[in-house]
C-alpha cells in the first residue's frame, strides 16, 4: 500500500471510530428516548374512563385552576397548525391562524367559554402556543394570563426566511368571566423562539423557554446531536428581559413547584431539570431527573407531584404536527418525590407512567394537568382534534 493509500485508510478508520462513538454517545440514546429504535410498542393505560370534548381543538397548553376545578386552554385549529408551528419549522404564514383563543372548560358542567379580547386590537391577532394562568397575589378572583404569541412577520421577507415575530402577551381576567383585558405585549431581542411561559402573581414578570437559539437556520437542527441551543429568559414589564440560564438543551415546558423551584423539560433527550431562583432572577441548575421518553408540557398537582406530557413515538409526532390527520400516540408520566426507604439509597424520584393511548383519544399530547382533588386528568395536544378528560 502506498503512502496515499495508508493515509486514506487511517482517515477511514478515524471516521468510522468517530461515527461509532457518535452513535454510542448520542444517536443510540436519542433513538431509544424517541421510541424509534428499539421501536416502542403502545401499551394502553388508564384511557378507558374518559370523556372527549371536540369543541376544543389544537390546545397546546392547559392550566388548571385548582380551587374551582376549571381549566384554561390555549387553542387553535388543527388545519392552521399544519402550516404554522414555528417551533417545528412550520412557517407558512399564509396558512397561519391569527384567531387563536383562550377558553375555559368546567368539567362539572361541560361548559365552554371562549374568552373575548374586546380591547386587544393590534391588527396581528393571536397565534398561540405556551400559556400560564396565575391568580393575582392581591385578589385571587383576578387572574393574569401569560401567552406565547407567534405573530406572523410583517415586512417584505417571508416567514421561511425570518421566522415568526414571537412575543409574550399579558392579559388580565376575572375568575368566571367571559373576557380578558390586555395588559401588555412584551417584545424583546431575548424573546427569540418562546415555547412556554411561567408567570408571576403580580402580573409584572415571567420566565419563558426559548426552544431554539435562532428563528430559522441550520443551528436549529443540531439539538439532536446534543447542541445546547435553547435557553430560559426572564422579563420584567418595567425593567426588560435577560437570560436567566443560557445554553440549555431543548428546553420546552416550564413550571414551578409550590416552594418556588422551577422545572424545565427537555423535548429531545427527555428528562426534567430543577432550577433554583437566585436573587437577581437568574437560575442555577439544582438537579436533573431523567425520564425514558421525550417530555413536553409539565405541571404540578396540589399534592406536589409533577405530571409530564410524554411522547411514545417521536417520529410519528413529527408527522402528526405536519399533518394532524395522522394520529400520534400519547402518554403521561408522573414524577414524585420518593419518600420510601430506598430514598435513602439515592432514588429520590419515582417516575411512573400513568397514562398511554394510541392517539385515538388524544393525539400528539403536549400538555397534561391533574386535578388531584377531583381525580381528573386533562390532556391536549398542539394539533389534537379534541380535549380528553380521564378519571384516574
Ligand atoms: C400555505 O398555506 C396556504 C393556506 O392554507 C395553502 O393554500 C398553501 O398551499 C400553503 N403552502 C404550502 C407550501 O404548504
Ligand atoms: C422544592 O420542592 C421540590 C418538589 O416538591 C423538591 O424536590 C425540592 O427539594 C424543594 N426545594 C427546596 C429548596 O426545598
UniProtKB/TrEMBL annotation:
Transmembrane domains' residue ranges: 7-26
Keywords: Membrane, Transmembrane, Transmembrane helix
Ranges in coiled-coil conformation: none
Domain of life: Eukaryota
Matches recorded under PANTHER family: PARAOXONASE, PARAOXONASE-RELATED
Descriptive protein name: Calcium-dependent phosphotriesterase
Organism expressing this protein natively: Agrocybe pediades
Amino acid at each position: 500500500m502506498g503512502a496515499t493509500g495508508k493515509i486514506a485508510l487511517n482517515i477511514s478508520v478515524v471516521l468510522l471510530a468517530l461515527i461509532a462513538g457518535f452513535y454510542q454517545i448520542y444517536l443510540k440514546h436519542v433513538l431509544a428516548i424517541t421510541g424509534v429504535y428499539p421501536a416502542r410498542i403502545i401499551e394502553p393505560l388508564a384511557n378507558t374512563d374518559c370523556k372527549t370534548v371536540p369543541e376544543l381543538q389544537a390546545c397546546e397548553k392547559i392550566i388548571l385552576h385548582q380551587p374551582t376545578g376549571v381549566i384554561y386552554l390555549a387553542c387553535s385549529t388543527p388545519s392552521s397548525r399544519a402550516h404554522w408551528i414555528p417551533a417545528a419549522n412550520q412557517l407558512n404564514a399564509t396558512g397561519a391562524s391569527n384567531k387563536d383563543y383562550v377558553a375555559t372548560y368546567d368539567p362539572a358542567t361541560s361548559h365552554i367559554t371562549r374568552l373575548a379580547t374586546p380591547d386587544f386590537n393590534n391588527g396581528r391577532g393571536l397565534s398561540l402556543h405556551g400559556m400560564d394562568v396565575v391568580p393575582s397575589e392581591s385578589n385571587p378572583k383576578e387572574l393574569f394570563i401569560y401567552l406565547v404569541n407567534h405573530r406572523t412577520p410583517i415586512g417584505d421577507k417571508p416567514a421561511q426566511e425570518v421566522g415568526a415575530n414571537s412575543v409574550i402577551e399579558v392579559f388580565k381576567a376575572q375568575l368566571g368571566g367571559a373576557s380578558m383585558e390586555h395588559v401588555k405585549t412584551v417584545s424583546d431581542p431575548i424573546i427569540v423562539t418562546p415555547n412556554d411561559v411561567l408567570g408571576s402573581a403580580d402580573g409584572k414578570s415571567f420566565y419563558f423557554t426559548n426552544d431554539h437559539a435562532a428563528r430559522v437556520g441550520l443551528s436549529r437542527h443540531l439539538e439532536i446531536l446534543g447542541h445546547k441551543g435553547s435557553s430560559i429568559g426572564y422579563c420584567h414589564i418595567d425593567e426588560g428581559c435577560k437570560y436567566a440560564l443560557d445554553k440549555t438543551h431543548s428546553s420546552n415546558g416550564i413550571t414551578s413547584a409550590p416552594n418556588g423551584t422551577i422545572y424545565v423539560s427537555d423535548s429531545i433527550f427527555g428528562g426534567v431539570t430543577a432550577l433554583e431562583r437566585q436573587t437577581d432572577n437568574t437560575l442555577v441548575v439544582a438537579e436533573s431527573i431523567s425520564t425514558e421518553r421525550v417530555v413536553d408540557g409539565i405541571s404540578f398537582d396540589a399534592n406536589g407531584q409533577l405530571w409530564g406530557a410524554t411522547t411514545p413515538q417521536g417520529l410519528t409526532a413529527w408527522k402528526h404536527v405536519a399533518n394532524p390527520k395522522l394520529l400520534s400516540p400519547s402518554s403521561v408520566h408522573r414524577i414524585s418525590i420518593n419518600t420510601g426507604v430506598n430514598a435513602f439509597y439515592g432514588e429520590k424520584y419515582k417516575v411512573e407512567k400513568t397514562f398511554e393511548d394510541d392517539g385515538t383519544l388524544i393525539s400528539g399530547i403536549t400538555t397534561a394537568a391533574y386535578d388531584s382533588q377531583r381525580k381528573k386528568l386533562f390532556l391536549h395536544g398542539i394539533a389534537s382534534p379534541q380535549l380528553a378528560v380521564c378519571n384516574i
